[in-house]
Amino acid sequence: TAIYGSASDASKEVAGEVADLIRKRNKSGKKTVLGLATGSTPTQVYGELIRLHNEEGLSFENVITFNLDEYYPMEPHSLQSYVRFMNEHLFDHIDIPEEQVHIPDGTLEEENINDYCREYEEKIRAAGGLDIQLLGIGRTGHIGFNEPGSRPDSRTRLITLDRITRKDAASDFFGEENVPRRAITMGVGTILDADRVILMAWGEGKAPIIREAVEGNIREQVPATYLQEHDNAEVILDDAAAEKL
Ligand code: GLP
Question: Where do the TM regions start and end (predicted)?
Fold first, then answer.
């Protein structure tokens, strides 16, 4: 666990680590494979990566990305889609080739989702696995959309969102009744397979669940506790999110 005075200082540190890896890989002509998250938490990390691209020439031409999750159903152009979110907060501002970006598809026919999820896993493997996975945390303790009850060996799949998660998303959707009931998410096992995992949380609202995640027993009721078993996972907090540790 690392605690910073502000989310922006912490975000710069995280972006710096990501950028260092990309530069190192670029030098040796290798790809960097990033697992990316949405939500308000990682936005300043993306902002800093864009700044490094603009001001220091950090190139994303050799970067491959896999996003954690997407609501289901969801059209990519919808206000709330994670495709739109990622384009606006990162991809539209950097030089990553479109074919190297992967975000779960919220427009699939339901009968095709299982095959699609298997292929998503296969693509991560074929890319060489995730080098760094960025995570936020939901009030339920979810990582990605792995809600309470998710198994440690779960893989990419269609899940049902927790009531609390849908409440927290209500303002984005102009009412809880408009929040989709389901989502496609990488599994806990998919996340734990990453070489490095960085979970970020800012603000006092996250302090109770951060205490559970960091100090609580490892259990499926709080999926973020599974990260305690990863040998290269780090929790990065601002003072407020760390206040109950
Ligand atoms: C959503 C996302 C999660 C994210 C969580 C927290 O549920 N699917 O990946 O961690 O929201 O959101 P925020 O970062 O806005 O607090």
Answer: none
